[in-house]
Predict the 3D structure of the following.
Amino acid sequence: MRPIDRPRIKICCIASVEEAWMAIGAGANAIGLVSAMPSGPGPIAEELIAEIAAIVPPGVSSFLLTCLQDATSIIDQQRRLRVNTIQICDRLTSGSYQQIREALPGISLVQVIHVTDPESVDEAIAVAPHVDAILLDSGNQSLAIKELGGTGRTHNWTLSRKIREAIEVPLFLAGGLNPGNVADAIREVQPFGIDVCSGLRTEGALDPQKLSDFIRAIRG
């Protein structure tokens, strides 16, 4: 997909209604709400996810990050939590994207591809026609305890750019981004959107200064 002039901004690992409003007030186009994960920062109770999703204003996307791998369970989770976007952080192994679409009309599907080697490019190309966007991250699904996001590590942006050039759907870039490197990432990959979690946090809390610096770096 062709690059855009100003990437969308997704602030992930939102932990409270207050953090959601902070991110939205600073200019975020989307917020990420992390459900149970095998590892990494950010998971919050489903009750809190539903509470935050309910206050997100029109025009802002509420992403549910899920590690579930079967379509039926993902459908049930969205119906409980009422987000408008599902971010599938692991590979879908049971059911299909079409099954999810038919059950949840109007809900956007974003598939995470963890960029580890050139095979990740092929994986993204294969999945892209079935989803609304691809999100590139720096996890590792091969570990005994899977890493599905929030690692604080960057990955090979050259591969990320190859993926962006090869697919026809929007691409979000995540993985180790912070106010100091996000401008370089945008120049290298030219993504549709930027996604950040740990790079904007101090002692686990969303840091208003880091948030401001991050958004200024993107818009600058």
